[in-house]
Amino acid sequence: MKQDTLHIPINTLSQTLGPNLGEADPGRQAYMDRVYGSGSWRLSDGAGLAVTGLVLSESSTQPAVVTISTDKPETRFTEAHIILETRIDYSADGRNVEPRFRYKLLGKYELAPDSISEIMIPAAVFKSQGALMVVVKQADAATSPMAMAAFDVSYSRCTRQLYVPDRQTAIRLNRKR
């Protein structure tokens, strides 16, 4: 069965994905370098981090849960930043599709030593495919104090959403359906 495509003007992103979503970035590394500084963060192997509830649909109501453990020497985290990476499909002409990424800081949290913290994120926060990025600050890391782990978000829709440059293009392409 072929999935219908709804063409949406790109300027509606702040309405559909939430206000203050941020500028489009070419990718995760560019975002991390811009926000945290090149060389001041590293990829994490995910030790001490777990995320559940990231397979979603338009009717999902269960929250995603980020679990952060600070009770082992290798997971002595003092702070966590939760960032939503949203992937949208964009097409300037309605045919050639390219992915674009947007990032939004959902929150910064202080972590207690020798504990297990759970952060719940409502399902309504997620509007499309992407990832949930967890950036943790290491208590004793001398060179790269920030470590980032990304967890894929699977979001299924009945109708595919394709963003286009303007309202006129969206109307023209939607009429062709």
Entry summary:
This protein is mainly beta. The protein contains 3 helices and 12 strands.
Task: Walk me through what this model shows.
This protein has helices at 13-16, 28-36, 167-175; strands at 5-9, 24-25, 41-43, 49-52, 55-57, 64-69, 77-90, 98-110, 116-121, 130-138, 146-156, 160-164. The strands form 3 sheets. Strands 2, 3, 5, 7, 8, 10 and 11 form a 7-stranded mixed beta sheet that branches. The chain has a 3-stranded antiparallel beta sheet with strand order 4-6-9, with no helix packed on it. By secondary structure, it is mostly beta strands. It contains 3 helices and 12 strands. It is 12% helix and 46% strand. The protein is elongated. It has one domain (5-172): Immunoglobulin-like.
Radius of gyration: 18 Å
Which term fits the overall shape?
elongated
Kindly report the oligomeric state of this protein: single chain
Output the CATH class name. Answer: Mainly Beta
For the record, the count of structural domains works out to: 1
> Helix fraction?
10-25%
- Which sheet architecture does the biggest sheet show? 7 strands, mixed
Approximate strand percentage: over 45%
List the helices and strands and how they pair.
Blueprint: E1 5-9, H1 13-16, E2 24-25, H2 28-36, E3 41-43, E4 49-52, E5 55-57, E6 64-69, E7 77-90, E8 98-110, E9 116-121, E10 130-138, E11 146-156, E12 160-164, H3 167-175
Parallel strand pairs: 1-12, 3-11, 5-11
Antiparallel strand pairs: 2-8, 4-6, 6-9, 7-8, 7-10, 10-11
